[in-house]
Design brief:
The chain is α/β, with parallel strands linked by helices. It is built from eleven helices and nine strands. A hairpin with a 2-residue loop joins β1 and β2. It is globular.
Length: 257
């Protein structure tokens, strides 16, 4: 792979954007490689969680303008559709996907981060949508995911002004969940992901699906969906093992069945 790197250890997939000389700008090659990798990881039962991060002190400074600035409208549609497909794939990935942000998370880079389950960052992180200053708009779902996370008015402010948002402000408005010192972030995020993935993976997968799907429908229907997912858990070995382990005061040995 030209623009990303990938390692798998103890079930956790660590994906890094690897274009540090371009501030990890999102290229057409990067989109294709990420899509291919997430498709493959989704079929691998050994993968229990994914960590997405940047390299060279930045997450991603956005789309590679050298590639897209001479696009025709039809080429722009194809680019947006490819980016939206990838972000939907990340958002719907059946296992937890956390993103660790250092430095810039701008434009398309921020859109990739927004498609993950939640964002963690270090104190160097800066967030912005600068597309209006280039005469365009966010195109990978940013105009839709950002308001759902921080509210419509704050999303409009970020997109209209293009102003850089520091890590402390991002934490205050709920754009990111937790903030770490740069030297400890990756260790802390990996530890958190390992803890999450030590639980019953079937119930974790169902929980993610219920939260994501229920958020878009009315409360009564969503609660019925939650009820049914809860009942499904009682057909699994993991439910029996988890409750037996609690009663017997021991660590559960989940099998994902």
């Amino acid at each position: 792979m030209e623009s990303i790197s990938f390692t798998l250890q103890d079930g956790l997939a660590h994906i890094q954007l690897q274009r540090p000389d371009r501030l990890n700008a999102v290229s057409l090659t990067m989109l294709s490689e990420l899509q291919e990798l997430f498709e493959r990881l989704g079929k691998e039962q050994a993968v229990t969680g994914v960590l997405l991060a940047g390299s060279g002190g930045n997450f991603s400074a956005g789309a590679d303008l050298n590639e897209i600035r001479h696009f025709t409208p039809l080429e722009a549609i194809a680019f947006a559709e490819q980016g939206q497909k990838l972000c939907s794939m990340i958002e719907g990935f059946p296992r937890p996907v956390l993103v660790a942000v250092s430095g810039y998370a701008l434009g398309a880079g921020l859109e990739l981060a927004l498609s993950c389950d939640y964002i963690l960052a270090d104190t160097t992180a800066q967030f912005a949508f600068r597309e209006l200053s280039y005469g365009v708009l966010p195109a990978f779902g940013g105009t839709q995911r950002l308001p759902r996370l921080v509210g419509k008015a704050k999303a409009k402010e970020m997109i209209f002004t293009g102003q850089l948002l520091g890590a402390e402000e991002a934490l205050r408005i709920g754009l990111i969940n937790q903030l770490f010192a740069p030297e400890e972030m990756l260790v802390k995020v990996k530890g958190q992901l390992q803890q999450i993935c030590s639980y019953g993976l079937l119930s974790l997968q169902l929980g993610k699906e219920v939260i994501d799907t229920g958020y878009e429908i009315n409360l009564a229907a969503a609660c019925k969906m939650e009820r049914d997912a809860f009942a499904v858990c009682f057909s699994t070995d993991d439910q029996k093992e988890g409750m037996d382990a609690f009663m017997e005061k021991r660590q559960p040995r989940f099998t994902g069945k």
